[in-house]
Design goal:
Elements: E1 16-20, E2 24-30, E3 33-41, H1 45-58, E4 64-71, E5 78-82, H2 92-101, E6 107-114, H3 121-139, E7 142-146, E8 148-155, H4 160-169, E9 173-179, E10 183-190, H5 194-205, E11 212-213
Antiparallel strand pairs: 1-7, 2-3, 3-6, 4-5, 4-6, 8-10, 8-11, 9-10
Helix pairs in contact: 2-3, 4-5
Length: about 220
Amino acid sequence: MKNSPPIPPADDPPDSYRTLAEPAATEMKIQRSRFLAQAVPITCVEDAQSYLEKTARRYHDARHVCYGYRLGVGRNMVSRKSDDGEPSGTAGEPILSAIDQLDLTDVLVMVVRYFGGIKLGTGGLGRAYGQAAANALGRATVREVPLGREFIIDFSYAQEKTMRRLLEIWKGKPIDQDYGENVTWRIWLAHSRWRGYSAALTEHTAGTVVLKKAEK
């Protein structure tokens, strides 16, 4: 059996991330001002822009449409925020903070404010926007999304029992299985586990089975 080159080390992302399962919305009033908050799951910047445009059109008569969002994980995480005319740091930052407190990503929170005629001050505004965002997020259902990689392993029929046991120990998942002259599995492993699994393969098969990166 031909061995593939070793897979180089990488800066792995986490094994999972938390996001919203579905949108949620709340409303609250503070000193006659209305704060309408919406929390929605997103997958890209274009999603965020689409939601923001729709919200701006729907609430075209509102004084402010502020927002914060996070996308991605690890080094690929990005965030954006907007105070939309409110004093700097009083809207977008508290909204982002509410997202961070729940350790969420791929999430957009928008807070629409209808001014009630009474000024809240910068401290009051920050608390109001943060609370509005937290209320919407608190109403939403959170889901955890696993992260990992897919690999290929080729082995003999005599090694199948060992392969099943190792995959179970390292909490991997079979994606596809092909039984021909030898056995070929396409498997999934969490980011933090694939290197350990690869070492276990080498140890238990004397190097006859190696982990190969799956082609997309």
